[in-house]
Design brief:
Elements: H1 16-38, H2 48-68, H3 70-75, H4 77-92, H5 106-128, H6 130-135, H7 145-184, H8 191-220, H9 222-226
Helix pairs in contact: 1-4, 2-8, 4-8, 5-7, 5-8, 7-8
């Protein structure tokens, strides 16, 4: 069904990798532009877009602090929060006729997952040290270490698949759902399907962000949990 989709980027180059990259860059520009617009005229009593962004960020930090603590929630917000906003715009752009959600491409979501994967390991090693960080992969009982270590390695590698394919599968499914609805009732604006897709775009962005915090918590708080 993909060949039936019209995209503006496809008028430049029909290669799907180019289309994905085009809209990924466009969403990055939109993410930065909206953030700049919200902070252009900062006021003590926020209004308009500043108010919306402050409320959104406050809510994100409120939920994140239950996962990793308030201090670290704020510390890692530049990564997790930016990913949350970016993924949201990448998701929702696919609802606009002539545009395609880059998160509907598995290679794009794989890149996002790899960024999170390497970053939380880097932060875990920086916080715990190489030896202490990888020591918790071996479990609490030494004689179980030969069994636990490969299981932990597989578990961490599976997070890449979980992060990337969960996002890809949901957004791809949403796009196909919207396409089918437009084919069945092209003369009618499917208000309810669009509302559902908007909710799913927000939900999947939230899930990706909160899982980023969960993985960071598991990496940097492992020593505290041991106590």
């Amino acid at each position: 069904m993909e060949e039936r989709l019209f995209t503006f980027a496809g008028m430049i180059n029909s290669d799907h990798h180019f289309i994905t990259a085009f809209y990924a860059i466009l969403c990055a520009v939109v993410t930065v532009f909206m953030a700049r617009l919200a902070t252009r005229n900062m006021r003590v009593i926020p209004t308009g877009l500043q108010n919306l962004y402050e409320a959104t960020i406050s809510g994100m930090l409120y939920m994140a602090k239950d996962v990793i603590g308030e201090e670290k929630a704020r510390k890692y917000f530049p990564l997790a929060g930016t990913i949350g906003f970016y993924v949201f715009f990448c998701n929702v752009i696919g609802m606009i006729p002539g545009f395609e959600a880059p998160t509907a491409a598995w290679d794009f979501t794989l890149v996002l997952a790899l960024i999170v994967f390497f970053y939380y390991h880097f932060e875990g090693i920086r916080a715990q040290g190489v030896i202490h960080y990888f020591a918790h992969f071996m479990g609490p009982v030494k004689w179980l270490a030969p069994l636990m270590f490969p299981i932990e390695i597989i578990s961490h590698l599976s997070r890449i698949i979980s992060l990337s394919f969960r996002l890809f599968g949901n957004i791809k499914g949403d796009d196909m759902f919207l396409l089918v609805m437009l084919m069945l009732v092209p003369w009618l604006v499917p208000v309810v399907p669009f509302a559902i897709l908007a909710f799913m775009a927000l939900l999947q962005a939230f899930v990706f962000m909160i899982l980023t915090y969960v993985y960071l918590a598991g990496a940097v708080l492992v020593e505290e949990e041991g106590h």
